[in-house]
Amino acid sequence: MAIIGYARVSTKDQDLELQVDKLNEYGCEKIFMEKQSGTKSDREELARALDYLREGDKLIVYKIDRLARSTFDLHKIAKELQERGIGLVFIKKQIDFTTPSGKLMFTMLGAIAEFERDLIAERTAEGRERAKAQGKHMGRIGKAEIDVKKALKLYTERESNGLSVNDIVKMTGVPRSTIYAKVKEIDISK
Question: Is 189 part of the annotated catalytic residue set?
Fold first, then answer.
């Protein structure tokens, strides 16, 4: 019976050290680590960890939200492990999914984690809407209008000036996608 750990953080700037320390304290023989968003279900190291596990092994994770951010994904992983005869333990809340009370706690905490994530997403969307209503710029700042006009002029004259779109992008700094979008706007308005 192998005790295998899985540690994850969402961004490159975050540190795995606390999780790895806790997994080592628990007695994990091998730890799979990655820096990847929990909302992605196709995480490479998680897939490697799940593939590595055999019947009778235990997968140890520091916190529920390190394994998955949605109740659906959480239950999918837990069900797959259970069907394969593999235990699942969350250290922080002391949930051992191999016990009936652990299964109940797992379900409740997973639902709460998903609810919390949905609340954050809702607040973020409301903040964006409020900022737009106040006239604040959202997203990247575009190129200066004078550069865009120069790029469009070069684009329309490209047969006579012999410039490719790549040449125009290099000369003006205006992205190819902006050039094509503006050309399309002009074509539609004609």
Answer: no
